[in-house]
Design a protein that fits this description.
This protein is an all-alpha fold. 77% of the residues lie in helices and 0% in strands. Helix 20 runs antiparallel to helix 21.
């Protein structure tokens, strides 16, 4: 019996040790589960606060968004999305250094996150570190090449660095991969316009509009290019819906383009209505006064023509357009001396102005100075041998029965002149 007791004690001790180990292990596992559960709960709470922060940010409530983000990061200190949104908020607040700190924390947590890299690049752009921004945009695109915004941002960085040609090549070589994305095409057009390649810009903007991406900015850019190419009907087709809807919000240059199209399409009364608010809001808009004067001339409304000419003369008395308009108005008022002075000033500036010489010829006829009239028309023909007005006037001056040729100031009553697209005042003045 005495020999068995030590063995029994050993067995009992072993069993007790196992029980202690089991209890200790269970306690450790339970503690670990508690820690994991608490960590998960904190993460959930952090995500809820992050969602609230996003909602506030989307509604423009940046300060409120920051408050929620601080709570979110208090619960979950490794939430990359929260740091990224915090960086955007700080950027919106103009707190660049705080934005940099936030995005660097996100970057340290996840260096292969394309969105983090794009925000990091955006902040670098804001501080004019374009080389750093370009590097991060390229890294972001290498990670996720389906996101066209990274490509567009990369191209914009190149433009900011003075590498517009490289930016345009980048967009041209990748546009098919992105299925001719309208935003990408629009940027191509803007860069081409910046480089002075109006044909390429027009082609890009046309493709954007054809894709149904009808934004006012692109429509305006395209229409202005069409105006420069003298495609007035096409330009007005694009601009008219915008003008009808947003006329009071459109830039004066665009409203003037609408008026220019209307003038060229022989709608002078519409020109007057179109320019009314522009001139009311900006009575020093020289180009608008010139257009108004031309509209008055075309519609034979000399009161409007006189008002436009007077204001143009007030703003820029020696501009060639002013001198031409003033000369015509004075001619119609039979103030031949004033018309002659304006035309001689114009010819002194540019002796190759065919229209000015033709008008000088007409003024000379009105004042019975037929020799001066012949000289003026001969000078016009020497500059432009196809000038129908000058040729016809010289023929009529040579006829013994016609002292004054039956032709009005701008050939408007002369069918042959109209057929030759000569001379109606609104068309002839540049």
């Amino acid at each position: 019996m005495s020999r068995a007791n030590p063995k029994m004690k050993l067995v009992m001790l072993g069993m007790f040790g196992c029980m202690v180990a089991a209890v200790t292990g269970c306690s450790a596992n339970h503690q670990q589960r508690r820690v994991q559960a608490e960590q998960h709960w904190n993460e959930v709470r952090g995500k809820i606060k992050l969602q609230l922060a996003r909602q506030q940010f989307e509604h423009g409530l940046v300060d409120e968004s920051v408050s929620y983000l601080e709570e979110s990061l208090g619960w979950d200190t490794k939430n990359v999305d929260a740091f990224m949104l915090l960086a955007e908020c700080r950027l919106s607040q103009g707190r660049i250094q705080a934005a940099e700190r936030a995005i660097e924390q996100a970057y340290e947590l996840d260096r292969q996150n394309a969105k983090v890299l794009s925000v990091r690049a955006m902040i670098a752009e804001r501080t004019k570190r374009f080389a750093d921004a370009l590097r991060d945009y390229r890294l972001a695109r290498s990670i996720d090449d389906t996101e066209v915004s990274y490509l567009i941002a990369e191209a914009e960085c190149l433009v900011a660095m003075g590498k517009s040609q490289e930016a345009l090549r980048l967009l041209e070589t990748t546009k098919l991969y992105y299925d001719n994305n309208p935003s990408l095409l629009a940027l191509s057009g803007e860069i081409a316009l910046r480089l002075g390649d109006e044909d390429a810009a027009e082609q890009a903007f046309r493709a954007v509009l054809a894709a149904g991406h009808y934004t006012p900015v692109i429509a305006e850019e395209y229409a202005l290019l069409a105006v420069r190419s003298h495609r007035y009907a096409e330009a007005l087709t694009v601009l008219q819906p915008l003008f009808d809807k947003h006329g009071d919000q459109m830039a004066s240059s665009v409203v003037r383009a609408v008026a220019k199209c209307m003038l060229e399409l022989n709608r002078p009364e519409s020109v007057k209505m179109t320019l009314r608010d522009v001139l009311k809001n900006n009575p020093d808009d020289y180009a608008a006064w010139i257009l108004l004067a031309k509209a008055g001339i075309k519609s034979k409304d000399m009161g409007t023509a006189r008002r436009g000419a007077s204001n143009a003369e007030r703003l820029s008395p020696n501009d060639p357009q002013t001198l031409l308009i003033v000369a015509y108005v004075k001619l119609r008022e039979k103030n031949f001396a004033a018309a002659n002075r304006a035309l001689n000033k114009l010819v002194a500036q540019n002796d190759r102005d065919v229209l000015a010489h033709c008008l000088l010829g007409l003024v000379s006829i009105k004042t019975q100075d037929l020799a001066a009239a012949r000289n003026a028309y001969k000078r016009a023909l020497s500059i432009d041998p196809d000038c129908h007005w000058a040729r016809t006037a010289l023929q009529r001056l040579s006829a013994p029965s016609a002292v004054e040729p039956p032709i009005d100031a701008y050939g408007q009553g002369d069918e042959a002149a109209d057929d030759g697209k000569e001379v109606a005042m609104g068309n002839a003045i540049p």
